[in-house]
Specification:
The protein is built from eight helices and ten strands. By secondary structure, it is an alpha+beta fold.
Length: 257
């Protein structure tokens, strides 16, 4: 399926019953685009578990937080109140960039998040934007970077309750199970199946990662692309079409009746 793709592609697929893996360019570094919000989520849960933040804290939105785009939080008026839990929901569910940059700041900046990734033995998974010392690499990868294998491993560690602790891991999996962006790889999973997922997209990079609790075989599927020739934002974008085909194939392979 990936042969002939006009760009660079890597994927990592793991059968969670047998531990078997199928992969291609799985250790190659790719831009995360909005998938960087998964490490940011880890940073926020670290603060919550330490008692430095409370899930139901009332926060005050300020115009200085605004990041240009079509995000929900950016439409708030200066001084409006919003609960931290809802800011987290906006980051992970609708991929709200204003919410995400606010949470990155609350998590202790990208530097602290990157330390957490190192502690999890994910050395290539990094936040670059607004992180001192990473200005040059940001020019290459944008907001964040990872590999298909590392991001899939982060999801598996959450599933195994190894990210921060069991309570934090469970919370993150629930949060990542509420994805508004369900028209690419996620669209090929039956609606009665639990999926924790995150997608990311910029002009030349479209990627997706998901844990699928299949009734026969649970699995993790991560596909990342970069340097894509097709930079359109229509549903027929080459990378999105390929992601759907791959997701459909993997679901059918593991869980077809």
């Amino acid at each position: 399926m990936t042969q002939g793709f006009k760009g660079d592609i890597g994927f990592y697929i793991k059968n969670l019953k047998t531990g078997k893996v199928a992969s291609y360019n799985a250790d190659t570094v790719f831009p995360t685009a909005s998938i960087v919000k998964v490490p940011i989520l880890v940073g926020i849960l670290d603060k919550l578990e330490k008692g430095e933040l409370n899930y139901h804290d009332q926060l005050t939105y300020a115009d200085s937080l605004y990041y240009a785009g079509v995000d929900i939080l950016g439409s708030f008026k200066d001084g409006e109140k919003i609960e931290l839990s809802k800011v987290i929901m906006l980051m992970c569910t609708t991929s709200d960039n204003t919410a995400s940059l606010w949470l990155q700041q609350l998590a202790g900046t990208g530097t602290r998040i990157n330390q957490l990734m190192d502690e999890l033995r994910l050395p290539n998974t990094k936040v670059n934007s607004r992180t001192p010392g990473r200005e040059e690499i940001r020019k290459q990868y944008g907001w964040g970077q990872t590999t298909p294998a590392e991001m899939a491993t982060l999801f598996e560690k959450m599933l195994q309750r190894e990210v921060i602790n069991g309570h934090a891991s469970d919370k993150m999996m629930r949060i990542l199970g509420r994805n508004y962006w369900d028209e690419e790889g996620l669209s090929k999973i039956p609606p009665g199946v639990f999926v924790a997922s995150k997608n990311g997209a910029v002009d030349a990079s479209r990627s997706e990662v998901m844990y699928v609790n299949g009734h026969k075989t649970p699995y993790i599927f991560a596909v990342f692309t970069k340097n894509n020739e097709d930079r359109s934002w229509e549903p027929t974008n080459e990378a999105w079409e390929l992601t759907r085909r791959m997701s459909d194939f993997v679901w059918t392979y593991f869980n077809a009746e």
